[in-house]
Write a structure and sequence with these properties.
Oligomer: homodimer
InterPro entries (chains A, B): ACOX_C_alpha1 (IPR055060), Acyl-CoA_Oxase/DH_mid-dom (IPR006091), Acyl-CoA_Oxase/DH_mid-dom_sf (IPR046373), Acyl-CoA_oxidase (IPR012258), Acyl-CoA_oxidase_C (IPR002655), AcylCo_DH-like_C (IPR036250), AcylCoA_DH/oxidase_NM_dom_sf (IPR009100)
Main location (chains A, B): other
Structural class of chain A: alpha+beta
Protein name (chains A, B): Acyl-coenzyme A oxidase
Subcellular location (chains A, B): Peroxisome
Shape of chain A: globular
CATH class of one domain in chain A: Mainly Alpha
Number of helices of chain A: 24
Mean pLDDT of chain A: 93
Keywords (chains A, B): FAD, Fatty acid metabolism, Flavoprotein, Lipid metabolism, Oxidoreductase, Peroxisome
CATH topology of one domain in chain A: Butyryl-CoA Dehydrogenase, subunit A, domain 3
Chain lengths: 677, 677
């Protein structure tokens, strides 16, 4: 091959000489092209202004070595669709495979990682350290392929954690180790055809038969069929079933049970019907299915009874009397879903940006002068403006995702509310950010972005589901605002200071912003915090006052919320963006003076100012004047110019191995050469 | 099956009775659900406030019967993947097929439509009527599948039109009829690996050999390989080759040639190498390929010589001396690409909205009161706010697309500039709108949107390429602004009034807006026009003044444009949105008083006000005050409530047959029933 390449080079040179005769006039000079396009690696022209390894540790936050170990395992195996492009090795799924093929290869990859001990302790170990390691490894799986991490997530985080959190000792002993070893394959049947976000409305119904000591699970109608159940179509042997529990004619609300749906050979069990959800726009490695229960009988012990139980003679007992609170207790452990979704969305955005920015540092288009060289994409101010603010947001959100994970693994009953609110906001904002980033990256790399092997475009389909699963983003944002509303009303009513949810700033007086915004003011962290606090405070006050007004006129609270959905969304965003800003500020504050802190300061200012620039609330409600907003816009442009020299270092710091990026991130001329066909 | 269904119904009823015992307390009452969810068709609950057939004629604009004929042809054939879901027939491609399978079935569909005479006259007939018919039929093909319309588009609009417009009699006689009959299959090799948007920079080089009277086409290096060439990977027999033409050592710039690449049996010709572009995130029915030319010799007559020619002894002759103008003349006929892209983007948005809105009129979620019924999605103000403004935009843009087609088919040398500018703006705005609409529709239907059979999600991948092909949208928007700049400078310099491009309003004094905006003012067409004109005018003045200032400081015009890219994009958008508003105003004006005109007025006001609400320029540059903008926002909410009752009628008016929408647009409970498995 290297001989081939040498011949090719010689050919190119020969051709070049042949077609470059003396130029007779200035006219033809302007049209003639002296040389063919050559690939020049970004590393040749860009330098690192800070320690990228240190930055990577900061961004990944934890378990760097474990991550690298897993990257290595995947690169070593033939199962991960290794291929060579332009002299480099890449691993990523073959998305030209049918759904059926993608499902099988995903399952094989899971077996391989099992053999290598990747999941050791995922359910049998406990404590923050074990949980962080598990989260890190899951993130790496998601960087390879979202189907892989989702299929693992369903088995360990939904099925496994449901057993762990909703179940008690008898369930733990029977299932946790077996789940970790894939002796059983679990799925999680909550969503139904008729009810997704509104879990309380599910129609599956379970009764208790005291004569046999069994629960009887039934799907009373088509809308009650379990839907979207990952693993159900093909591989799962067992499932958690969410169902209304009807005891002696009284509906005790939604409860969770364990049911077997397939035997070891994969044969569907009696009284179970299963169908496929069919082909999807992404995640085709996950076998989503539908389940009907035909008066399926399960042992009384299969009720996951941490919150409530039914005695052998059929008496319902629960320590939590209020059914709303009981429902809440059931749902609380599911927060882990939002935590992992938020975090994996950011890793997906990182993959997109690493590819698009590396390409923009090697691809040229158009020249500015008649005979000048073509300009590197990232040297266009418009291209900087497209990608660099997204890069800054990804950094800030990366710290926010880490912070969320930390609160989550150290959770206590007291932190549940905060985790619920923050995870709802971050899940929505980070998944929308990912979709928006991938779309911009796909357009920024032009047609190359629609080739699946270049990933940026494909990731859109693979991650799209995140904006609606585990709660529609809009609904989640409204939940954030409702929680803030409740907090506000409660503090005001009891005349107590705000505590928690980052609302403490509301105890001080309203921040006053300077009328003139110089560059140094705009980059000052205190100013940025003040602006974000002012917005959050004002929107919260507006929202509560609007809702109160409507309630005063006899409207119900629910419909008052609905009418004010725009304010609710603005507030949810203001809350979440402030929380994000705080996490990058915290990260920055911990660093010693030096280049790392400096560049993080730049990135943080970019995050703060682009958030201001993009939110019309600042002008709409007059937090900033027109001149101020003009200053912000100019400062964003200036920051683009200052972040530009760090672009390569900033994406290198993501720590994603070359093999997990697309060919256009590297020598795309050679990757497309005839010799590679 | 109907027996099955009856049994099922009886079962449901029995189950329902079994689980509805007398309720003992108010607590259980709030949790119990009386009945299972039932599908109720939107038609049962919604009424049509206007003549939907008349509205459909207005929206399609032309060739309604021809469209219906083609819809019928596709529904009748087994080739179009007909399937039953919930008792209804649907046609849409099986996207679980591999790329190879999708390519073959697409080609079979093309043959079938050929047999049915669909393409009769597409190249051999001329004149506006023939062109409109062709455009209408292509649009219908695109509603079935974007791959189908793109593969036809490459053959007829790129290859065929290149022969027709760049070629002369000798080419017409030889190729046009044969193309229409698919005796030859054409492709269009313009883009190269190294150069896409920047066509002038292509590196393929052609020389002339006067001894043999042949051109010699060569790919001098890897970056010069032809890339993304639709049809090249598998089916095409011939191609247009864009190449630098080097005559006696002088580069005469980009010219177009005809070359054969495969023989009738599909064997690749000597001196040609072909490779595949591989799997894509959509359009896998199109066989995009790459081509290398190894000193391929073609007859002198294969130069498409409408603009320039080479005499047998090798002398270059052209009526157009300026190479820039010559290049422009070559590119002008390609405008048809932007016309068809803009129009097909709007039809795709229509499919998405028809599905999402019909679903939102049959899907319920959450109840507002403890025991109340769940609320229809479209009765949530937030859901209205998500979808109805997009519906209004789609209406307005639909008229704009029709208008563009009319100018295009009636084009004269004088209208070329206007067509270029308007088609650039509309292509960018309409394709972005489509992507945005599909994303919102996909999220609005929840998880159902990720099933490919429900189309909304799949269409995103299928149409994604539109934002960058035939010119990156951002580049096109900058071109619009550059053209407006040139117009402005030229009028000012010559002290002449503005004429054309809709800039005539700049000859009058700056419109003065009222300080208070009542509801009736906001809905007044003159007010809306004034606001849009004011924005365009002010942004144009700002842009030219900023560019002039920089030029005054010694910057080149090109780099002055680049630095002001944000203003350029704002201006491009202002220009295009004003052009769109004008077309829906024109359509409205032509209607007699009545319900059709009334509802179109509502839709037009929604379009105007949502455009104002979404563009921060109005506040940023002070065209409107904060109070004004608050009024606009409230009016949009009010309009949502007023458009809501028309939602079904408005999407029915799209005239897309049920079979071309997704199953969730109809009885999605039955479509998912066990009996359908």
């Amino acid at each position: 091959m290297s001989e081939n390449r040498a011949l090719q080079r010689a050919n190119i040179l020969a051709n070049h000489i042949l077609r470059s005769p003396p130029l007779p006039s200035s006219l033809s000079l302007s049209l003639a092209r002296e040389v063919c396009l050559q690939y020049s690696p970004p590393e040749l022209n860009e330098s690192y202004g800070f320690d990228v390894k240190e930055m990577r540790r900061l961004l990944d936050g934890h378990n760097t070595e474990d991550r690298d170990w897993l990257y290595g395992l995947m690169m070593q195996s033939n199962l991960f669709n290794r291929k060579e492009r332009g002299g480099k090795i890449f691993v990523s799924p073959d998305y030209n495979q049918t759904m059926e093929q993608q499902r099988e290869i995903t399952m094989k990859r899971i077996w391989y990682l099992l053999e290598k001990g990747v999941y050791r302790g995922w359910l049998t170990d406990s404590g923050p350290e074990a949980e962080l390691k598990k989260l890190a490894l899951l993130e790496v799986c998601g960087i390879y392929d979202h189907s892989l991490s989702i299929k693992l997530g369903v088995h360990f985080f939904l099925w496994g954690n449901a057993v762990k959190f909703f179940g008690t000792k008898r369930h733990h002993e029977k299932w946790l180790k077996n789940t970790e070893d894939y002796v059983v394959k679990g799925c999680f049947a909550m969503t139904e055809l008729g009810h997704g976000s509104n879990v309380r409305g599910i129609e599956t119904v379970t009764t208790y038969d005291p004569r046999t000591g069994e629960f009887v699970i039934n799907t009373p109608c088509e809308s009650a069929q379990k839907y979207w159940i990952g693993g159900a179509a093909k591989h799962a042997t067992h499932t958690i079933v969410f169902s209304q529990l009807n005891i002696n004619g009284t509906n005790q609300g939604v409860h969770a049970f364990i049911a077997q749906i397939r035997d070891e050979d994969g044969t569907i069990c009696p009284n179970i019907r299963v169908a496929d959800c069919g082909h999807k726009i992404g995640l085709n490695g996950v076998d989503n299915g539908r389940i009907w229960f035909d008066n399926l009988r399960i042992s009384r012990e299969n009720l996951l009874n941490s919150v409530a139980d039914v005695s052998p003679d059929g008496e319902y007992v629960s320590a939590i009397k209020d059914p709303d609170q009981r429902f809440g207790a059931f749902m609380a452990p599911l927060t882990s879903g939002r935590v992992t979704i938020a975090s994996s969305a950011i890793y997906s955005a990182k993959v997109g940006l690493a590819i698009a920015l590396r390409y923009s540092l090697s691809r040229r288009a158009f020249s500015l002068t008649a005979n000048g060289p073509e300009v590197l994409l990232l040297d266009y101010p418009s291209h900087q403006r497209r990608l660099l603010p997204l890069l800054a947001k990804t950094y800030a959100m990366s710290f926010a995702a880490n912070d969320l994970k930390m609160i989550y693994v150290k959770r206590t009953p007291e932190t549940n509310k905060a985790i619920h609110v923050v995870s709802s906001g971050l899940k929505a904002v980070l998944t929308w950010h990912n979709m928006h980033t991938l779309q911009e990256c796909r357009e920024a790399v032009g047609g190359q972005g629609v080739k699946t092997e270049n990933l940026v475009g494909q990731l859109k389909g693979e991650f799209d589901v995140q904006t609606t699963f585990e709660g529609d983003n809009n609904v989640l944002m409204q939940q954030v605002s409702k929680a803030l509303f409740a907090e506000y009303v409660s503090c005001k009513k009891r005349n107590k200071p705000f505590r928690g949810l980052g609302l403490e700033h509301m105890n001080s007086s309203r921040p006053v912003l300077p009328t003139q915004l110089s560059s140094s003011t705009l980059r000052c962290s205190q100013f940025q915090k003040n602006v974000f606090c002012l917005r959050e405070r004002d929107l919260l006050e507006r929202f509560t006052s609007e809702v109160a007004q409507l309630q005063g006129r006899g409207e119900s609270r629910e419909s008052s919320f609905l009418v004010n959905h725009e304010l609710a969304e603005d507030l949810g965003k203001a809350f979440t963006e402030k929380a994000i800003l705080q996490t990058i500020l915290d990260a920055e504050a911990k660093l010693p003076a030096g280049s790392l802190k400096d560049v993080l300061g730049l990135v943080r200012s970019m995050y703060a100012l682009i958030s201001i620039e993009e939110d019309p609330s600042f002008l709409r409600y007059g937090y900033l004047s027109r001149d101020n907003v003009g200053d912000v816009r100019r400062e964003v442009s200036k920051l683009c110019g200052e972040v530009r020299p760090h672009a390569l270092a900033l994406v290198t710091s993501f720590g994603i191995p070359d093999a997990f990026l697309g060919p256009i991130a590297f020598n795309w001329v050679e990757a497309n050469a005839w010799s590679s066909v």
